[in-house]
Amino acid sequence: MVYNKFRLDSFWGLPVTNKELRIKRIRGYFIEAAQEIIDKEGIHAVTIRKVAQRAGYNSATLYNYFRNLDHLLALALSRHMGHYIETVLETLRGDETPFELYCTDWFVFAEKSFRLPKEYDYLFFKKPGADIAEVYNEYFKEHPDHFEQLPEAFRSMCKEQNQYTRDLAFLHTQFGFLEDSVLRRISEMNILLHKAMLRDLAEDEALQAHWEEYLERFKAYFLFVTRELEEVDPILP
């Protein structure tokens, strides 16, 4: 098997061999084919056979580059994580307090996920074995400068494998002086709140037209849950 699992700190700046270029090119064909099917028919229409046919290879070849269909789909969704990172970078002023940074993370993430609920629900909750860091890698391989531009809390978060460790890493970076139990409680409440609202949007197409209303409700609930963080923000004026 030629598949290699990249880590965030292991591939940038290294020489690229012809074999690695070929692997990247063929993997790209499969990922692009999966993305086209998602765009035209939805994520649940993607199959190994469809992707292989669209990419111009047989199904057996696909397994040389991906562990399974879920692995391929996760990487195909990496572009959406790219949209999230790009929006974060556009939103940041550079002088945010820790609490403001945490709000930026969640509000941008909620906005992106509520716009595409099926894709985000699949990636973050329906496939708990998916490695989110691997999805970030797929984007950062093409945009390493974006990783360097992110504040430390975001960089720490991007190295985590799932939504729960992802959020806790962010909180520990920004509010490490608080008790772990407090951070875990806040994190779990935010994740469960987001998960429930995202699942509603993903499972009821009629609700998807109201995603902006869901976003405003989420923000209000989030600010209630995180009021302890706002009160102890160490660099508030």
Description:
By secondary structure, the chain is an all-alpha fold. It has two domains: 18-76, Homeodomain-like (Arc Repressor Mutant, subunit A, Orthogonal Bundle), CATH 1.10.10; 78-231. It contains 14 helices and no strands. It has helices at residues 18-41, 48-55, 59-62, 69-76, 78-91, 98-115, 117-126, 132-140, 144-149, 152-158, 163-175, 180-203, 211-225, 227-231. The radius of gyration is 19 Å and the shape is globular.
How is this fold's topology laid out?
Layout: H1 18-41, H2 48-55, H3 59-62, H4 69-76, H5 78-91, H6 98-115, H7 117-126, H8 132-140, H9 144-149, H10 152-158, H11 163-175, H12 180-203, H13 211-225, H14 227-231
What labels describe this entry?
237 residues; mainly alpha; Arc Repressor Mutant, subunit A; 14 helices; globular
